[in-house]
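re the bet — no i am not wrong, look at it urself. input seq straight from the record:
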Amino acid sequence: MSTDPVQRLKDYKPESEFFVGIDSDGCVFDSMEIKQKECFCPQFINHFGLQRISKYARETWEFVNLYSKTRGANRFTCLERALQMLRERKETQDRGLVIPEYATVMEWIHTETRLANPALEAKFKETGDADLKVVLDWTTDVNNTIAKIVRDVPPFPQVPATLKKIGLKADPFVVSQTPCEALNREWSEHGISHLVKIICGQEMGTKTEHVAFAAKGKYDDDKILIMGDAPSDEIAAKANGVLFYPINPGNEEFSWQRLHDEALDRFFNGTYAGEYEAQIIKEFHSYLPEKAPWEA
C-alpha cells in the first residue's frame, strides 16, 4: 500500500455528481484575524525593531496579510512586502527609522522553492547569516505564539448547515495549505470532520494540485466548485478551469449565508457559471485592493 498521501487523492473515486473544495483558515474558521493580529504582527514589531512606528507597522502588516491581494500568501513573501512598504512610508522616514534591507533574506525568498521554516533553518545552519537568524527567530516565535493562544476558534456560524447541504449532492473536500495535523485537529475539535470526504493539507501538495488530483477529469468542470477567502483559492480554481466561490474577508457570515441560501442551488442546477460567478468574483476583488489607503 502506497505511503504517498497524494496517491489517496489520485485514487479517489467520485461518490456524487459534484465536487466542492473548501479552504480552512479564514474560510471555514475565523482564524485569520487572531493569527495575524495577535501572533504574526506583535512578533514582526518585536524582531524587526519597529517599536517606534508600531502603529504604522501594524497597519501595514494587516493590510498586506488581511486586507489586500496578498491575503493568504506565504508568510515570507508577505514579510518582504510589509518591510518594503514600511520603508516607503512617510511616517517611517519622519521618525528617522532606517529598516535594513536584509539582502540575504530577500535572496533566499526569491531563490528558495519551498519557503518554510525547515528550509530557512537549513540555510541558516549553512551560512550562519545574522539576517537569516532574525527572520528564523521571528517565524519560530510566530509558530510558538500560535500554539499558545490560537484555540477554541469555531467555524463561522452558517458553516455546519452549509456543509451538510453540500454533502447531500456533492463530495466535499478540505483544500488547504495548513499542515494536515492542524487541520484534522481543528475540524475534529469542532465536530465537523465527518462532513467532508478527505482533508487535504500542505503535505498533499498545493491547492491547485489537490483539485487536479482529486477532481479534475473525474467530474465535469462545471460541477467542480472551489471555495476560499484568498486569491490563492481563486488561482487554484481557474488553473484547473473550474468554478470559484469566494468567502469575502470581513463579510464572511454574509458569504456563507448567500452560499447556503442561493449560490449552492445555482451550482447544483447549472446556473452558477457565467454572469453570476463573475459578479460575485468582482465583488470579492473589491474587498482586496492593490493599493493601501495611505497610498491612494
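see?? DSSP finds 14 helices and five strands in the chain. told u. also Strands lie at 18-22, 170-175, 198-200, 224-228, 243-246. so pay up
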